[in-house]
Amino acid sequence: MNRSEKKQQTQESILHAAVELFRHKGFEATTVQEITETAEVAKGTFFNYFPTKESLMHTLAKDRLYKVDYYIKTYGLKRLPFLSKLRAHFSYFLGEYHLNQDVTRLIWQHLIEKDSLLLKKWEEVLSVGKQEEEIESNANLSLWANIINSHFYYMLSTCTEETRDGFLDQLMLLLHTSLNGILTKRGHRAMKKLVVLGGGYGGMRILQKMLPNDLPDDVELILVDKLPYHCLKTEYYALAAGTESDQDVRVPFPKEERLTLHFGIVDRIDKNENLIHLRGEDPISYDYLIIGLGCEDKYHGVPGADKHTYSIQSMEKTRRTYETLNNLPANSTVSVVGAGLSGVELSSELRESRDDLHIQLFDRGETILPMFPKRLSNYVQNWFEKHQVDVISNSDITQVDENGLYNHDEFIESKAIIWTAGIQPNKVVRDLDVEKDEKGRIVLTNHHHLPENENIFVVGDCASLPHAPSAQLAEGQAEQIAMVLKKRWKGEEIPKRLPAIKLKGVLGSLGKKHGFGVMGDTALTGRVARLLKSGVLWMYKHHSGV
């Protein structure tokens, strides 16, 4: 290692130690002495790199600021509309917000107070917006950069939201109101718009089937998602358990000239006016709409479950779950409510991640995973017994509070409770005035569109289908939707009935070395099942069409 590399490593060690201490003790309570002891450097070495404790804040913010361009480029966000691009910048800057709000606030407040670097970044973003005719040509960029900065500082000082998304929603609403006067209306009025809501498994497969060559010249493809990358939701259990990183469960969206990525949150669908209402932004119009907004936890009316449990249903919530599980004291009790595939995989992965924890898996049924052959169910049960995970059968969770849960009204203390006991469609879908089944999913025709509107399709967890929601089902449905649209655009005849979607099977993990599943009529257990799942995941990540 040369001298320059050693200096860089020393600086990073000091920064890492400082951030960890700030998260757990707070900025004011942390001393330079504690930072140097944690980083295993001399106090004099610290001052060679940082003249004051406050200067750490400056370095942390500058590091994030310098890396934002790489983030924007990597995830293809340069083509975003101006406000979505602005939100993408803030989202990256606030990447640590879910870990410690106070430290994140202090870092950016310090940079705004002490440096003009952030102002220069806003001038650069505004300048690009002007070049792309999204910003009025006579707008004073320096003035508006200061306005963006002041709004950011104001929100850092006053916003009490606990999540990054909540913070961003309020900030973007404020910015939209202020910036509206210099924004221009853009869009190709002659182009028809195919809008895909949600970049999950169904939305991603739509993109793959339409791009690059199967989209008519007069159709514009727009993907709306709150995140700038596709998330491997089936792997959230590993992220929550701490055995995989955030980066491991991301896949970039396709980088295609004919794809417009719109980074934002859907508030409401107006199917009468063909409009998608976004939080803090102007609505988006559509000619063809594919709704793939996914699902949320369903708490079945259990008091306290929505407030006192953790989730693996979204990236944001899974990050919070990971942070909680990672910081639990040794020998803590963790309760997982719901012994379906998600609960089983989370419990087993958490056992491998934290062998000190007491893990309880609550199952409503008599036998774990009853949808699988008995041999597989017994295999999973035996694995849990061998690895000291308590499976509590015939459970009935009647209440949850901050200290634990009640099973058949008997209190069981828990340091953390993860809810995997049911899902329901996204709230936007629940609020949509259309026919739904008993589970709240939208009733569709055989061609996957609304009975009363052939231009509105639904894919994935929000669609009423014969099978339980899954990534495979969403992908199979997406392929049929893409086929229907392409035939319609070409003027070709569409089959009156589409074939049933064939599922290849189901594979589950029991940690990193063991698994279970069914492929066709064959039941699999052990290392073979785990290797198969790893192979399927690898192929998916590399866009091999699995």
From TrEMBL:
Limits of the HTH tetR-type domain: 8-68
Classification via Pfam families: Pyr_redox_2 (PF07992), TetR_N (PF00440)
A biological process from GO: aerobic electron transport chain
Record bears the keyword Oxidoreductase: yes
Annotated region of DNA binding: 31-50
GO molecular function annotations of the record: DNA binding; NAD(P)H dehydrogenase (quinone) activity
Transmembrane segments: none
Keyword annotations of the record: DNA-binding, FAD, Flavoprotein, Oxidoreductase
InterPro entries reported for this sequence: DNA-bd_HTH_TetR-type_CS, FAD/NAD-bd_sf, FAD/NAD-binding_dom, Homeodomain-like_sf, HTH_TetR, NADH-Q_oxidoreductase
Cofactor needs: FAD
Record family assignment: Belongs to the NADH dehydrogenase family.
Entry protein name: TetR family transcriptional regulator
Organism annotation: Salibacterium salarium
